[in-house]
Specification:
There is one protein chain. The protein has helices at residues 2-16, 38-45, 53-69, 90-96, 104-123, and strands spanning 22-23, 49-50, 73-77, 80-84. The chain is mainly α and 124 residues long. It has 2 domains: 2-86, no CATH class; 89-124. The strands form 2 sheets. Strands 1-2 form a two-stranded antiparallel ribbon. A hairpin with a 2-residue loop joins strand 3 and strand 4 (80-84). Helix 1 (2-16) packs across helix 3.
């Protein structure tokens, strides 16, 4: 999920161009703003941060590279977003299937949980 949010952030900075904007960093509280209750967000709204021009330029360069690669899939690995082939998760998904019939949603859900657990283990 984090890669989707980060990709959205990169596209937002790209579309804003030189127009100023402020951000509220909630990364130390939750993986997504949508996971926070309004009471947790309220005190943060009064403390927006502006990105330095060099920071915005770095995001633009990253997004330009990813757009130029035009890959069907992007992931965050080793702390950086990168393009990967569409087959990136095939082995994981297949490993979560078994001989018993499961719906595609169950297989994919199991794979997502396994990937999340693997990512959390790698982060610690």
């Amino acid at each position: 999920m984090l890669h989707v949010l980060f990709a959205g952030f990169l596209e937002f900075t790209w579309q804003r161009g030189d127009a100023p904007f402020a951000i509220v960093d909630v990364s130390d509280l939750a993986a997504s703003v949508g996971m926070l209750r309004a009471e947790a967000l309220a005190p943060l709204i009064d403390r927006p941060a502006r990105l330095a021009a060099s920071g915005v330029a770095a995001y633009w360069a990253l997004w330009q590279r990813l757009r130029d690669e035009n890959a069907p899939l992007r992931v965050i690995a080793d702390g950086a977003m990168r393009s990967v082939p569409i087959t990136q998760h095939d082995e994981l998904v297949l490993s979560c299937a078994n001989e018993e019939w499961w719906s595609a949603a169950r297989v994919v859900g199991t794979a997502l949980m396994a990937d999340d657990e693997r990512s959390r283990a790698a982060a610690t």
